[in-house]
Structures are given as C-alpha cells and as structure tokens.
Amino acid sequence: WRSSGITTEFELYVPAIGGLFMSVLMVFAGWFHYHKAAPKLEWFQNVESMMNHHLAGLLGLGCLGWSGHQIHIALPINKLLDAGVSPQEIPLPHEFMVNRNLMSELYPSFSKGILPFFTLNWNEYSDFLTFKGGVNPVNGGLWLSDVAHHHLALSVLFIIAGHMYRTNWGIGHSMKEILEAHKGPFTGEGHKGIYEILTTSWHAQLAINLAMMGSLSIIVAHHMYAMPPYPYIATDYATQLSLFTHHMWIGGFCVVGAGAHASIFMVRDYNPAKNYNNVLDRVIRHRDAIISHLNWLCIFLGFHSFGLYIHNDTMRALGRSQDMFSDTAIQLQPIFAQWIQNIHTLAPSNTSPNLLATASYVFGGDTVSIGNKM
C-alpha cells in the first residue's frame, strides 16, 4: 500500500470500505444478471465484441487509470517518503492533484502542463516516466516511475488492441477466420473447428483459462522475488517466501484444474466427426507418444535428482565430503548454457558494446543493501 501512496490507517480504511461496497454491488449484479435478466447465449458467443471490450476497457482503461494514480498520487508521496519526510508532514493525496506548484517542485515538467503532450515533445515528461531499470537503492523496489511508465505504455497497447476485432463495422479481424487460416505444413487442417469448440464448450474455455492463469501465477511467483515491485519487500524474507509458495501452489492448482476440465470436455463436449485431422485431433491421436514422453521425462528428472541426493547423503555419512556433488567439491556445471551465454556476451562486444553495461541490479551487477539487508 505504500507504493500506492497510502500513508495512514485512515487512508487504508477508506478503500477497504469502498472495496466492500463494490463487492456487495457486484454480488447483486451477479444475482440480477443470472436470476432476473440473464443474457442470451448469443451474447456470450459474440467473442469479437468481448475481446474488444475486455482489451480496451478492462486492460487498457484499467492500466491507464492505474498509471494516472501512480503518476499523480503515488509518485510524489513515495518520493517524499524516500527522502525521509515523515508521513505526518506529507500533504494529503488530493493536494498533489489540485496544486500544480506542489507537483512541479518534485517533477519540474508538471509546470508545463499538457502542452508537451500536444506538441509531441514527450521527452519533457521523462522526469516521472523513466526508463532507469534496476531497483531504487533506498527501498529495494523497482523504480515507481518505471512502473508508471510501464502501465502507461501498456494502456496504449491495450486500447489499440481493443480496436482490433471486427464487430458492427466491416473492418478488423475475425477470430474464426484467423484460426481457420492458421495452417502449417505438418498440422493438417490447422485450427479448423476450434472456434466452434470454444464458443460452445464452457469446459474447453475453462481449461484454457485455467492453464493460462496457472502458468501466469507461476511466472508471477518468480518475478515477485526477481524484480521486487514494492518498497522494502525484497528484504522482508518471510513475505517473499510466502508469496513465492502461495503463487506456485495456486498455479499448480489451476494447471491441475485445467487438466480436469479438459478431460470433462473430452468426455461430454468433444465431437470427433467435426475435428477430423485438425491440430486437436492430431494431438489426441498422438496421445500415447506425448504422455509416455512426459512420463519418461518426469521419471528421468526424478530419479536423477533423487540419485544425487542419495549419493551426497552417503558421501557425507562416510565422511567423504570431497566426493559430494557441490560447488566446493565435484562441481556440476551447465556447460551448454554457459556456452550459449558466452556467445551472447561475445557477439555484442563486436557490434554494440554498450549493451553489455548492466541494465539492472536485478539482472547481474552489484547487490543492493537496504538497512544492512541484501
């Protein structure tokens, strides 16, 4: 909450009450649109309109609103907190919006207003829309000005993407046409029939969404510690460990759920006659090879790592620690990965040596010490 510009318990209390009110409203809306005035099935099957609204509305305007909050409220408050100003002395959040002089003391480009935007002189705004990379040395989180820049850029991308699909006007993409045109030399009929599956089977939809959200949760688990987004979170090891474990478990549950609902789809909703020789049919016909390879891979990884544990335990029990596999005894090094990384280091040194400068403390370079913690 510090990174949102919240400095007092009252400020935390207000959005909590607001969230409670909104959740009650949404529960009512859910009941109303399910039991009193449920939309027709065709409304749910109009995927182009759904994609446009979700991309431009939810993601685009959502990112835009968040970047606006970060720029106008969170950035000035966090800049003052990082400078050591006590929370009691920081002006109230709305004052940063109504008092331009207050903002231009912290970010000089605010004195110019929106003129640089319309004169395409966007470089003026680089004092609060930065591209520094790395972490803030005061609090060990990513630079908030980088994060605001990121959300503003994403909002532009998503709002453009929300005008991509063909609805009432004759221009734009059709989901069905894209899928059916997507044929490769080795994939038979390609994705013919997939559009019909995903507009008629809730289980197929749910399986894909769970697989995506599960994978995303696992990616979030790793990024939360590799690129710590909040102030001081990088040195709060208990929180880091809990966040990692939580997102890995949730991701695992979602992926298992994806498999479960894909299975229900196969039993209840799949029609082999409508999916002859498309990608889905070909995958299903290769299922023995695919599953046995996955099974073999899991056995390989499991037995080899277990074998290393047994070896190390035995060596330690016999007092032969010099024969263990570890960084200080027998080293196991990823020589193929090192070879690739070496090529990636040599290539730019010939063509663009500036690329080799450390972009971020997060990706190589020195460690950052925050309050005597790494």
Compact summary:
This protein has 374 residues and is mostly helical.
Give the secondary structure arrangement, pairings included:
Blueprint: H1 9-36, H2 41-45, H3 47-82, H4 93-98, H5 100-106, H6 115-118, H7 144-161, H8 175-181, H9 194-200, H10 202-226, H11 237-268, H12 279-285, H13 287-317, H14 335-351
Helix pairs in contact: 3-7, 10-11
Descriptive overview:
The two termini are about 20 Å apart. The chain is mostly helical and about 375 residues long. The longest helix has about 35 residues, at about 45-80. The chain contains 14 helices and no strands. Helix 10 runs antiparallel to helix 11 (about 235-270). The model has no long low-confidence stretch (mean pLDDT about 90).
Features:
374 residues; mainly alpha; 0% strand
Indicate the mean pLDDT.
Answer: 88
Q: Roughly what fraction of the amino acids lie in strands? A: under 5%
The major pleated sheet works out as: none
Q: What is the helix/strand order? A: HHHHHHHHHHHHHH
Number of helices: 14
Cα-atom Rg, whole angstroms?
27 Å
Number of E-state strands: 0
- CA(first)-CA(last) distance: 22 Å
User: What structural class is derived from the secondary structure elements?
Assistant: mainly alpha
Shape label: globular
Which residue ranges are poorly predicted, with pLDDT under 50 across at least 5 consecutive positions?
A: none
Indicate the percent of residues in helices: 55-70%
